[in-house]
Amino acid sequence: VDASGETTYKKTTSSTLKGAIQLGIGYTVGNLSSKPERDVLMQDFYVVESIFFPSEGSNLTPAHHFQDFRFKTYAPVAFRYFRELFGIRPDDYLYSLCNEPLIELSNPGASGSVFYVTSDDEFIIKTVMHKEAEFLQKLLPGYYMNLNQNPRTLLPKFYGLYCVQSGGKNIRVVVMNNVLPRVVKMHLKFDLKGSTYKRRASKKEKEKSLPTYKDLDFMQDMPEGLLLDSDTFGALVKTLQRDCLVLESFKIMDYSLLLGVHNIDQQERERQAEGAQSKADEKRPVAQKALYSTAMESIQGGAARGEAIETDDTMGGIPAVNGRGERLLLHIGIIDILQSYRFIKKLEHTWKALVHDGDTVSVHRPSFYAERFFKFMSSTVFRKSSSLKSSPSKKGR
Ligand code: ATP
Ligand code: CA
Ligand code: CA
Hints:
The chain is an alpha+beta fold. It has helices at residues 14-33, 76-85, 90-99, 130-149, 203-206, 215-221, 230-249, 264-274, 295-298, 301-305, 341-344, 348-356, 365-381, and strands spanning 8-9, 12-13, 48-53, 69-74, 102-104, 115-118, 123-128, 158-166, 169-177, 188-192, 226-228, 256-263, 318-321, 327-335, 382-384. A 7-stranded antiparallel β-sheet has the order 3-4-8-9-7-6-5. A hairpin with a 4-residue loop joins β6 and β7. α1 (14-33) packs antiparallel against α3 and α7 runs antiparallel to α13 (365-381). The longest helix has 20 residues, at 14-33. It starts with 7 loop residues before the first strand and ends in a 13-residue tail after the last strand. The relative contact order is 0.13. Residues 301-307 and 392-397 have low confidence and may be disordered.
């Protein structure tokens, strides 16, 4: 944050970064539309498109109020194919990212990355380190082979990788799916890893309006876990298991399950206390554009029962119940997967955490991490409730 109160990243102000991203993506998506659709070839993964944006404009680019910058698009044809796989039309992608303001997230992680969400809640933009961008490039062919086989997954969906070059600095950003729609009020938010080493929200974090709680907070505050009906539990566990296998195969570590909890009963109590109008007046967001992007779709809830998923009143959340019997809707996704073991071993904290957690055999680290993560999610966080009927989204209706 600079003197004027605006966030800066690598000496670039947030408004400059947002402007450059919007201009750059606008150009590159438009440019792509002139290239005929075709199958993705292996070499498409290694293409980098580069275009210079002088502030006075050029015959290819508009004039703008920022410093001159260069915009690079990694693997444009490959990412176009992936966006298509998730049902995102070029016009919608352009509109979401370039035509409406990008909103800076106020509660980012510890790494210093800046996060933006698009006005329609659809996409998250995250600045990533050089190593992470490089890793994503290497990961792409294999990662998307997995997504192609199985688009229903809780793994992040990457829709674009870009670099803004300005004033001698490189700022790399990824565009990915947004796990927590802002239109849904989250009463609780957790970032869970399955580790206990320093996994408690700080005092400062807890003072925020919506703190990001961690593993130890979850164990303390929700000792009964989150109860799911057996079909939903089975679908979720199966998805997590498969996703962990993919992450392990790429030697990825240090990822988290991001969990947003919307409490239906608490919401109703709050509404009554406020004496607010009926539910019908509530702001309804426009229909989600991306396929398989809600939590419920990601775990194949509907497909498992062979019926269309009812998302109208759940906003795609996974129905659950807490220890007090309150009805919940869960929004979940695996995040922060761009750290591979090769790179991570240099990170002091992670090394200490792993030793603390009892893993001292280095070659096993990614599998140790995946196994512990899966075990924590499938036994401590999410639990099967025998008393819950399947399809609780229709409950009381
Ligand atoms: P660190 O490496 O220190 O954990 P980071 O900068 O890599 O931090 P992340 O762990 O990726 O950050 O995310 C930080 C926070 O940003 C999350 O706790 C979450 O609140 C938000 N966030 C990240 N990715 C998403 C996403 N795809 N959808 C919604 N919110 C997200
Ligand atoms: Ca993280
Ligand atoms: Ca990180």
